[in-house]
Every structure is written in C-alpha cells, then in structure tokens.
Amino acid sequence: MFPSSFFRLLSFPGLNLRRSADRRLGQIRTAMLTLLEASGGHRVQRIAQRVRFADDLEALWYLRQDLMSALAEIDGEHVAQRRMKQINRLFKGGLPQTMGPRVHHRFTV
To answer: What's the domain of life for this entry (predicted)?
Structure first.
C-alpha cells in the first residue's frame, strides 16, 4: 500500500494533460507522414524531416501548407484538399481558436 500512495503523491495534476498532448502530437505527425510516404523526391523528404522533428502542435499546424503544396503537385489540388481536411480535423481542440482553419465568406454588396 505504501508504494502506490507514495507514487500518487508524486503525480502532478498536469501530467495527464501532457501525455494527452504528446499522444495527439504523435497521431498528427503519423498522419502527416503517412500522406508523404507514397511520394518521393527531395522536397517531400525535406517536409517529412521537418514533420518528424516538429516539437509541438503549432509547428505541425504551420507545416500543413508545405504538406498541401507537396500533395497538390503529386496528386492534384482537389485530392490534396480532401486529404488535408482529415489532417485539419486532428487539430480540433488542440490549438487556440484563432489558429483554426478560417472560413471565407463572400462579400455581398
């Protein structure tokens, strides 16, 4: 009984949040790398390396544009957009609202 209560005292409240963030980071990283695996070339390898070494969700968020460009060159823009929607969903709830995908509205006069 002593060891379990001792370890419970040592646990920090934010530890579970950190594990959850690390898990989400790993899921997004894996999803992005999976999209790049089917492609080759120096540019794709460079993007994959940057994705592997991104150290937080914000860094991965900003790498989406590079990923989108690479996918559009290979598979076309329509296919790339559809694949990126899946990636965007993974970020939901993990970033500040101001960093989410923007909805563009047409201006009406």
So the answer is: Bacteria
Spatial CA neighbour of 79 closest among 92, 65, 68: 68
Find out whether 80 and 71 touch, Cβ atoms under 8 Å. yes
Alpha-carbon distance of 9 to 25, in angstroms, equals 28
Domain containing 35 equals 16-93
**How many distinct structural domains can be found in the chain?**
1
How confident is the model over 42-52, as a mean pLDDT? Answer: 92
Contact 2, 65 (CB under 8 A): no
CA nearest to 57, candidates 99, 16, 95, 98: 95
Cβ atoms of 64 and 87 closer than 8 Å: yes
